[in-house]
Design goal:
The chain is mostly beta strands and about 260 residues long. It has 3 domains: about 25 residues; about 90 residues, Immunoglobulin-like, CATH 2.60.40.10; about 100 residues. The protein has 1 helix and 19 strands. Strands 1, 4, 7, 9 and 10 form a 5-stranded mixed β-sheet that branches. Strand 5 and strand 6 form a beta hairpin. The longest helix is centred in the first third of the chain and has 22 residues. The protein is elongated. The relative contact order is 0.12. It comes from Runella rosea. This is Carboxypeptidase regulatory-like domain-containing protein. InterPro entries: CarboxyPept-like_regulatory. Keywords: Carboxypeptidase, Hydrolase, Protease, Signal.
Length: about 260
């Protein structure tokens, strides 16, 4: 600004302020940028609920984001009054809710062994919340464990074993022990382990979903048994290789393996 130059080559006060202010601004920006790691994304505080909004994150069995999971926000007072949504690529969801009492449930659909499984997700927080207050509700995929006994949920996240004796030949099914040996990975892609399951025990209700080769023995005599899948038009063999099916036609979130056994 030539009009501001005084005699002797001195600048007027307005010109002195301009380079000083720029220097301070650049220094502040440099300090701020040094506090943020490269490629970091700054997200809103996910621990603070927003009024009229329910949001959260869904992860798989290893803690990684679970995309495309189905979210259902149910009204705890009125039947079939719900809000539907899905998680994004980072496992997040955010849904608007009206006044009232609400709770959140979720499912994940998985294709395994040429079958489609719709699996219930575990809610980290089970209680209802007020729509006017909003809430954070996170969920995760579990292979085993008892489901919360709240708002209609029951059972286990794993599959169950149902056993019948051969008609007219064997009746003592309470004293049969089964060995489940995984074939390939489990339904979530993880490595399973060989399990020993006794009919009627709690572990027979919560077997990680997967494909197994199953053998059986009669405990009182330590005798190997013959077995087959029930109602599958099979002959009895020393072992059965199979995955779990819905507990009844059209069921979701509940799967079982039904076997028949007999002595050789």
């Amino acid at each position: 600004m030539v009009g501001c130059v005084r005699k002797g080559g001195q600048f007027c006060p307005e010109q002195k302020k301009q380079p000083i202010m720029k220097t301070l601004l650049y220094a502040a920006l440099a300090l701020l940028s040094s506090c943020i790691p490269p490629h970091a994304h700054v997200h809103p505080d996910s621990d603070s609920p927003k009024k009229g909004i329910v949001s959260g994150r869904v992860v798989d069995t290893s803690g990684k984001p679970l995309a495309n999971a189905d979210i259902v926000v149910n009204n705890s007072q009125f039947y079939n009054n719900n809000i539907l949504g899905k998680t994004d690529a980072n496992g997040h969801y955010s849904l608007s809710v009206n006044a009232g009492s609400w709770y959140v449930r979720g499912t994940v659909t998985v294709r395994f062994d040429n079958k489609t499984y719709v699996l219930d997700l575990f809610p980290e927080t089970t209680g209802a919340f007020a729509g006017t207050e909003g809430a954070i509700r996170n969920l995760r995929w579990k292979l085993t464990g008892e489901k919360p006994k709240e708002f209609g949920m029951s059972g286990h996240y794993g599959g169950s074993l149902d056993v019948y004796g051969a008609i007219g030949e064997f009746f003592d099914t309470d004293n049969v022990e089964f060995t489940f040996k995984p074939v390939g990975t489990l339904i979530d892609g993880s490595t399973g382990k060989t399990l020993t399951v006794k009919t009627g025990d709690e572990n027979a209700k919560d077997i990680p979903l997967g494909k197994y080769t199953v053998t059986a023995r009669y405990l009182p005599t330590n005798q190997p048994m013959l077995l087959r899948q029930r109602n599958a038009n099979q002959s009895y063999k020393n072992s059965v290789t199979a995955s779990f099916d819905p507990t009844y036609p059209g069921a979701t979130g509940s799967y079982q393996l039904t076997l028949e056994v007999k002595l050789p």
